Structures are given as C-alpha cells and as structure tokens.
Amino acid sequence: MHRYLDKKLNRHHIYLDSERVPLLLPCLFARYTEVAGKKIELVRRKSKNSDLIEDVFEEISIGADASYKICNHLGRFLEWLEGYGGKDDAILSMHTASPQELINDYINRYLICEYKGSQALVNQAVNSLRAYYSWLQYFFNNKNKNFGVKSSHIPIARNNSKIPLIVKYLLPQTRELIYQNTSSLLEEIVLRNGGELGCRTKENQGFVLKNFKENTTKHKGLLSLFHDLKKYPYKEEFKYHLSSLYTKYGRSRVLYIPRYLLEKMEQYFRLERPLSDSNHLLVSNSTNSTRGQCISTKFGTDTFAKIRNKLIYEMQENLQLYRGYQNIESVSVYHHLRHSFGTDIFYNLCEGSNKDCDSITTSSAVYLTTAYRLGHKVDGKYSNSVTKSYIHSCGQKERLLRECEFEYE
C-alpha cells in the first residue's frame, strides 16, 4: 500500500493499493475531510419529538490540523491492515467491513503494546477511526462498529506517555547479539536488513529475485547478485536497487549489501526458503495458508519483539554472563535497528570529515549523504528534526560505549 499527501492537485491524502490503484472510499473520505473540512460525529441530544435523549450523527466543521491528523491516522491503520496475517490484498480491500475485533486489535495490541503509543496518540487514532467509520455508516449505511481502548490497556497507554527518554541507538555488539538469537535465516536476514541496510520493516518485501525495470532503467534482482558473488570473489559490497513500490514516500534508493549478508541471502534461498512461485526472496515459512507468500509488513516488528523479550529475560537471569553489554529495553522496536544504522553512517561521516556532530546542518554533505542512504526527505517540513535526532543519538552512542567499557573493566 502507498499513501501520500497531494497538496497541489487534489489537496488531500491519496491512498493506493500495492498495484497503485486508488482505494476509492478512503480517498473520498479524505476529500470530504480535508477539502470540505468536515467530519461526522455521534452526538447526544434531546429529541425534537420528545424529552428523550438520543444519539444522532451530525456533520460538523473541523480545522486543517484536525483533518490532517484524521487522514494521517487512517493511512497508518490501512498500512497495518495491509500486512495483517499475511493476507494483504484481501484484508485491505475489505477494510470497510473489518470486524470491530480487528480494529480493537490495532488499537490495543499494536498501537499500545507494540508501538508503545502514548495516551494522546492512541486517543487521536481512535477519534480518527471513529470519524472514518461514522462517515461510512452515515453515507453508506455501514454497520456500526464498537471499538476503543480497553480498560485493561488504559494504564499501559498512560505509562507509555510517561517514558522520559527512549534510547533508540543499539550498539553494534547489541545488534549482533540480537541477530545471533534468531531461530532461522529468514529472521536473521530480516533483522540484519534493518540494522545493516537501514530497511524499514515493510521494505523487506522489496527484495525480489528476477531482474526488473523501473523508469525505463534495468536493475539486477537477487538471482543476478548471487551469480555476481561467484563472478567477483573479492568484491565486498553489492548494489541493490530498492524499488519505489516498497519504500516510504514512493522514492527508490540504492542499498549497499555487504558480501557476508548477500551470502546469507543466497544460503536462505538454497536451503531454507519454501518452494514458492513468488518473486520475493523472503517468504513465509509458516504451516498455514500464507506459506510461500511474501512475508507480511509486520514480520520484522514481530520477530524483533520476540528476540528482544527473550534477551531481556536471559540478561536478567544471567547478569554476569552479559556484563559489559548494553541494557536492552522493552520499549526497543524494529525501527531502532534502522535508526542505529543511520546514526552509524552519520557518526562515521562526521569523524571522517573531522566535524563535530553538533555543527551539521541540513545543507551539509554529511546530512545529505545520510538522508540519501536512508531514503529520507531532505526538503520536507520535518527534515531538520531528522538531523537533530541523529545528533542526539550520536551522544547516546558515545555514552553507551563509555558505560559498556566501564562495566567490562
């Protein structure tokens, strides 16, 4: 699935499926919400015909900030749906009829427990989804859906709001420890793609086997790169074009795959990958109907959470064995692998050019190179905040290195 904010032509969010076909109802809703500046809300008032109190839908006007948040949260929900259970197209195309249990799963299991969303963020998501499904009910007579934050999850969301500082940087030895604790080559490759190539969890779907063409330019698939491993035995890095079909913002970028990681991919293809007609390298090895299909967008998230929880328990039970290692926190997520990769690039470029991290601006070569490697926007509204996050993480990296060295001594 793809989504973007079209400010020039349509002036609202556009939602597309994996084939870049517009999702009609979400697009119409975005037009109603962002261009007309309205939403449907369930309000309680006294009946005109009696003194009884009744719940009725009303059309109310909203501002630009509210309409943006509603449509942005809807896009997040649709992206999550796309990878839910590995049945991407079916669930996404049928999202208007999604059972309320599925929506509650997104709010409570994913946003609160996995994403560690704050109470404010979760409330925004709930209000946004209510606006969308109320709109469907009001204009299209869709069935009413009852969803929201479960009472058991309110304290968790409240506690998420109190987290003072999340250390997003994972030291190289910490990442290596995470990779070593995977139970299959598939899991290891997906996590290494995050920490050593800077891939988002969805971008793991972008590793394809056959050669392909994008914008009239031919690019090598992984089968060709496997051939290059033998053809160039001393080559230590191989370029791979990550198609815009699988990236955020719809912008392609080049990944520089180290030899040892490409060899792991080839080993997975030869020895572990289930028989499949899929053109994707990474496919599900589960025993259900998804076996042989491309892994879901949440596979990286789920795998990281499993390994993280395993290591947290082992470290607590074997303090002496893991002395000198960075403390792994329950708030760590898959995206922190990508963030750590970006921090290392930023940090090394600063050292290589003999510059202090605090001196880097959005126009510097260090920042532009880091942004290019990660597929970040450099001209967007929040480009400066991205730079600041790496400056802050460089400080975290240096602090963590000092703490781990002290513990080891």
What does this 3D model show about the protein?
The protein has 14 helices and 8 strands. It is mainly alpha-helical. The chain has 3 domains: 2-161, no CATH class; 165-183 and 298-409, no CATH class; 202-297, no CATH class. A two-stranded antiparallel sheet has the order 1-2. A two-stranded antiparallel ribbon has the order 3-4. A hairpin with a 6-residue loop joins strand 3 and strand 4. The N and C termini lie far apart (49 Å).
Short description:
The chain has 409 residues and is mainly α. The protein has three domains: 2-161, no CATH class; 165-183 and 298-409, no CATH class; 202-297, no CATH class.
Task: Please give a handful of descriptors for the protein shown.
409 residues; mainly alpha; 3 domains; two-stranded antiparallel ribbon; 14 helices; 8 strands
Number of strands: 8
- Counting DSSP H or I runs of 4 or more residues, the number of helices is 14
Largest sheet: 2 strands, antiparallel
- The helix fraction, in percent, is 40-55%
Number of domains: 3
Specify the structural class.
mainly alpha
| Secondary-structure element series | EEHEEHHHHHHHEEHEEHHHHH
Strand order of the largest sheet: 1-2
Termini separation: 49 Å
Q: Which of globular, elongated, flat, extended, rod-shaped describes the shape?
A: globular
Q: On the 0-100 scale, what is the average pLDDT?
A: 88
Radius of gyration, in Å, reads 23 Å
Strand content: 5-15%
Task: Please outline the helices and strands.
Elements (H helix, E strand, L loop, with lengths): L1 E5 L5 E5 L7 H12 L2 E9 L6 E9 L2 H19 L5 H6 L6 H15 L4 H22 L13 H8 L10 H9 L4 H13 L14 E3 L2 E3 L2 H10 L5 E6 L10 E6 H14 L26 H19 L17 H18 L12 H10 L8 H26 L1
